[in-house]
Structure formats: C-alpha cells, structure tokens
Amino acid sequence: MERFRALLALLGSPQLQFASVLVAGTKGKGSTAAFAHACLQAGGLRVGRYTSPHLLNWRERTLLVDRFILPGEVTQLVGVLRPAVERLPPSLGVPMTFEIGTALSLLAFARGGVEAAVLEVGVGGRFDVTNVVEPIASAITPVSLDHEGVLGTGLGEIAWHKAGVLRGGRTTVLGPQPDEASATIALEAVRTGALIERVGRDWCWSMNADGITTVRGPDGKRRVSARLPLLGRHQRDNAATAVGLGAAALAALGKAHADPAALAVALDRVEWPGRLQRVIQTPPVWIDGAHNGASALALAQALDDEETDDYTLVIGLTEGKDPVAILRPLLPRATRVLVVRAQHDRAAAADEILRACQALAPGVPVEQGGRVGDALDQAVAIGDAVVATGSLFVAGEALDWARGRAPD
Q: Quick check: 393 and 342 in contact, CB under 8 A?
C-alpha cells in the first residue's frame, strides 16, 4: 500500500476530493455496491462506483454517476497516470494492474465532480489498495472461504482481513455472517471503536406475496418498499445492507435519509448483469457468477425459489477454486454437465472439474463442452433449462453469447 499511497500523492491525492464508502466481503460485494450507488443517488448525491472484475468491458469498472467511463476519458487519464508512475521511486517497484485501474477510477471520480464514491474492495480489505481511503461508512457482505492462499484458511482469518475497512466512530453494516466471522469482526469493532449495524437485527427485510421487498431500519420504521430487479433471497440481504450503508453515509454527510419513494425508484432500476440473470425464456437459460461454495449454494437455493430443476449445468472455474465445494449444491438438480474453459488465462482446466463431477454424481452424464458459447448452443438444443456458472469469466462470455442471439 505504500507504493499506492505514493502514486496517489503524485496524482494530487484524488481520493481526498470526494467522500467514499467501502464494500468488503466474500460474496455479494458487487450487487451491494450497485444497490448502495442507487441509495446514495436517491439521497441527492452525484455518485461514482468502482467495482471489479468486469464482465464484458474493462470500462464497466468505473461508473460516473449514470454512465461508464468513456474510451477517450480512459486515454486521457492514462496520459496523466504514466508520468506519475515513472516518477515513483524504483525502490517501491512497478505498480500492479489493479493499482493502476484503481488510481484511474479515483482520478475519474475527482475530475468528474462526484460527491461520493462506492468502492468495492478487491481481495480482503485490510491490505487492499482501496483501503487507502477514509470511508465515511462501510459494509461487509457475507464472509466465506475464498482466496485462502492470500487471506488464510479459516473464516476468522478471512474476516480479520475484511474487518480492515472498519474505522473508529464510523458505521459498518454487516450482511449475514457465519458465527466465526461475526465474532472476529465484533472483536475488531471493539478494538477500533467502529459502530456495527447488522442485517437481520438492525436492518430487516420482508417480502410480500406480490414480490415487494420492504426494508426497515434500526428504529423499526419502513425505509423503502421496492420490487427489486435482482433475484434471490441473498439479493434481499444485499439490498438491506446497501440501504443501511446508504443511510449511514448520508448521516455522516449531515444529510437526511433518502425519501422512500425516490429510494424505491432507484432500487427498481438497479442493473447488475450476470447474477442470477435469465437471458432466454424458452428454454430458460440462467447466468450467474457463483465462484465459491457459498455462492453456489445461494444460487442453488435461488433456482429452487424460481422452480428451476432438471437443468443442463454449463460450468467453468477459475484456477485455485474448489470444484467440489462449487459443484456439490448444483449437481442434485443437474441432468447433464458440460465443462467449459473461459477464454481467460486464469481459467481452470477441465480435468479436475470432470473428476469432481464424476465423484459427486457418477450417474450424471458429464463431458467437455469446449468454449462457453459452443456449450450453450449444445445445451439449448437439448431443450431443458440451462444454468451457466462457475466464475464471472464464464458469466461474461455467456452474457456475450446471449446478446448475440436472436430474441426468443
């Protein structure tokens, strides 16, 4: 982080020119950031959003109020970044790609006149470069096992990294957490003097028979009722987290809570592609970026809620992911599995995934499906429902495939 701080100093400390909120956690960070962006805009602010990774285009990572950064703006900012990078002391080394991208987004926000920015943490939190900002509020979405090689092999270790976004006297909203992670974050809150609000205790949601989700705050008052566009019960948790985060951020800025009607409109309009997204109606084709065991379980539960079973599973993973943990909740309803490899240098080879499928569900036909688009063509021809998942790389290629098809 020393190198990144030095780089920002050479750029004029753009992170000090707007308020920031941080979203850490293992799963649901991007969705929560999208909801939080909407909440702050409903509060009357000009808001930027920084998320990663992207699905189809690198520019998706930087949202300026209501549009992605333009190619010309990227070119201009690279021209500002390059001389700053060249002026860094050699002893600090060369910045990583993620550092350059983060610095570019912060510059874009400062020059674009945003009043607040929602920043999704990359990996962990405590030592992630996004954590150089001083957030006015933060959130930690559900913690689960992921990036164990960097963050540690236990939930407590991983949660300790996530809890690096806590700040004394500032509010952090926690999504539902496993006990071990919750206990670690609570200890860090005591140590730092951070204020903790929890989904399920302080921020609660309910959904009526018409699919309208209502979120209530710590005082029990209704903050919003909206027909959330993102599917799955876990997205209700993410929305409640974001509503709490938005309220804490607005309060820190001395502003009133967002008007419930304006907040409902903003949440209704949230788009976050590739997350339990139905891209074809007949046969139903679902795309989701589930990339670890916990997110695969959430996907399986959401598919149950949508009454989707007997599906062809199109799956590809990223190197280092546990195929057994991801496949276990998804295989019981799968009638066939097509193992794919996304066109990305971090995509996992098919062999380990094939072996895991055969060990977990020896009666389910499994074969290599080649590229994502080819496998989806094959799966759709079978006629059953289709679920494409395993990584955001797979989700992105599946989304690109769907956009290239004629409307059904």
A: yes
Domains of the chain: 2-268 (3.40.1190.10), 277-403 (3.90.190.20)
* Interatomic CA distance for residues 177 and 166, integer angstroms: 16
Please compute the mean of the pLDDT values over residues 219-223 and round it to a whole number: 93
For 137, residues 6+ apart whose C-beta sits below 8 A from its C-beta are 21, 170, 171, 172, 173, 245, 248, 249, 252
Are 296 and 334 spatial neighbours (Cβ–Cβ below 8 Å)? no
ω into residue 365 within 30 of 0, thus cis? no
First CA to last CA distance, the chain: 49
Q: Could you write out the DSSP letters of every residue in 13-75?
A: -GGGGSEEEEEE-SSSHHHHHHHHHHHHHHTT--EEEE-SS-SS-GGGGEEETTEEPPHHHHH
Within a 10 A sphere around the Cβ of 282, how many other Cβ atoms? Answer: 9
- Cβ-contact 399, 274 below 8 angstroms: yes
> pLDDT over 70 for what percent of the chain?
99
Check residue 408 and give its pLDDT: 53
Nearest Cα residue to 308 out of 277, 266, 264, 341: 277
156 vs 162: CA distance, rounded Å: 10
Distance from C-alpha of 240 to C-alpha of 121, rounded to nearest angstrom: 19
Position 13, amino acid: S
Q: What is the pLDDT of residues 264-300, one digit of tens each?
A: 999 999 999 999 999 999 999 999 999 899 899 999 9
DSSP 84-130: HHHTS-GGG-PPPHHHHHHHHHHHHHHHTT-SEEEEE-SSSSTTSGG
* Residue-wise pLDDT tens digits, 302-326: 999 888 879 999 999 999 899 999 9
- Residues in CB range of 373: below 8 A, 6 or more apart: 397, 398, 400, 401, 404
The stretches of 208-335 forming alpha helices (DSSP H) are: 233-252, 260-268, 293-305, 323-327
* pLDDT for 407: 56
Write down the residue that tokens 């920031």 correspond to: 20
Amino acid identity, residue 111? R
Residue 348, amino acid: A
Does 153 have pLDDT greater than 90?
Answer: no
